[in-house]
């Protein structure tokens, strides 16, 4: 699992990465004074392994000990990672894997490869970790502090830096297989790594293939059925069965009636019975559809990853280097079939003159189109190709000054097939007057919505359906240059400085299918704002480290460092972000540290320029209440009291400005001399964010408009009855967030003895406060210890622990993961209180044996030994649990064989 070494070894440039690797190999507990080390969040090489801000480091042996098969699963184990999703996470997942830190969304965590930015996989600005070759990763470093002064945008909650294999000599072949205790979710993986060193350079090539099958949400006990009445909860099925629910039948008025079981075609009102859709506290049968029987929890996924790294000494002072990678990912996940009905604001009228309507009157029909074949269902069928190449030079100048210059190009081509979406206008035509349908000469086929399952024929489906797809092309081009070295010497040591510059160009374009404006019922895409051709960023930075005192009473060491970065965006203007840090060792075994800095996050392409969509949602209109006359925004008029919903327009806003943040970290590192190989770390953190990009609540818009007349330009009302028909609720810079907490880390390794060597590692994070207002201008509310759809699980305590034993060629590692209980803010109220989701313990065991004579390593593992399901969340319609923190895979077995030549 996780071993936290507050050894910060980040590569901002290949020269620095090489120095970091050397230091890591040199000594895990201490380094020679002259060793050059790169500290995560800094571009200055130094000699101290411990810096002013904490980092979690996972080397390759620790990665293998977790049993993880991809980066998403691996980073889910981190206590500081509060919202990491993977391809085995939940509902309709597109096969991507993301990571988020400190309870903030994933866009606040910067992902790097060898210290360089990674191209996002979507216009949301979020990096897909599955696009990074997992087997080529040498170690993972997670900076738990802001770093905008060093890296620029997005490094607010922290930085995940993936250090790739570089120094490898020989050939290694690895194969693995995993499967759940239920016999599903098989995972196959094969990889090969080949490297060679020679007099003037080296290279490493790694190739891997992985294929994993998915499963349905209903395949697990936690998510058998969204009807939770048996658990004391609500009925969250959809009121849209696979046969017609009809309103307007002669003699029944607006009463909802459903076609009886076994009836192949409606011929009289006797073929119908009352539709049963019980509410909270009610008993009886449920005609609603269990959509979890159709939707995938884990996607089918197949990946091919290639990685190459090489360097060559052009001269004694100049080295050329290149990094390149290719990832191809295909993934397939399903949602329930298409549906329609007045309950979602899309009533479909079956005309009195429709061929299949024997009742002589117009009927309003609601139905799920269960006849859709797999290809026709709503799906996320993704094919993604990601290319990356970095080339550059690094070298030495006079004295200890070094330089590097690199060019980074990345490109993403991603196609998503969304199924054969049903076109609303064609469905209306096919359900209307059948003679008019046939006379239209556009291929219209009258549709039978009043028959039993299978009454909608393939010919009928063909007319009302069209392929739905999205095509994304994105690229990143950057040029980075750095120079660092010693300015002069002070009695306490050298004053070191680094300066550098970066020019970056990000491009993003998206192409939708021709029917995107009409092919979905709940979210119909409207005319989008044009994406700008590119986003251009010019940045310069400077960093300095000053040793102040050394080897004087109570000041074994005192040092100060500072950095500042200036960034100019062609779309959002300029920003300057400083950071300062202090390290103080009163005695050799104790170090006190602290850092403060500002950060920012530029709006993503989608946030600023994304297409707008229009969907029907429930509302609470104050003008429908009894006190409407006292509300200025109601203008003395009362809307219908039965108004329960309206269309809501959401999407991008080109007027957004960057989010801003302030980070404070204070902590200590204790390594007592009387207990070698023991370390204790304790850190306090605080993050304050302003201008947080979010969407105004539709009901907040209505409340503010009614109370004082604001937001009038965002509300459309019916001219006759004053009912709300449309609300515009696009993204804005709205909120503030204040987060603070504590991190604790313990690590102890025994001496080698007759019974081998033991290592104990414990990492705990405590969320002391997470405050965010529910709406603009409102007082902040405490979210600590709660679950919400927006923020996920914000447990007070999270922790991971691992006990590892090694003897000769045997290694056994037992791990425990803990997530504390939370109040489910999305649940129903029982006695005036929300329901709670319980705590979660997961136990894992991985055992390996290295047969030295054959250079072969065998690994067996069991993840989630006791088959623990995620905590149940009443009201979570997605799958009944928090898929950003847990998965429902259950007990899982794995086997691996690794052979070196």
User: Based on CA inertia axes, which overall geometry fits?
Assistant: globular
Q: Tell me the fraction of residues in β-strands, as a range.
A: over 45%
Low-confidence stretches: 1-35, 517-529
Sketch the major β-sheet.
22 strands, antiparallel, barrel
Q: What's the overall average pLDDT, rounded?
A: 87
Radius of gyration: 30 Å
Distance between the termini: 27 Å
Number of strands: 49
**Which secondary-structure class do the elements indicate?**
mainly beta
The helix fraction, in percent, is under 10%
Number of helical stretches of at least 4 residues: 9
Q: What descriptors fit this protein?
A:
single chain; 901 residues; mainly beta; 22-stranded antiparallel β-barrel; 49 strands; 7% helix; disordered N terminus
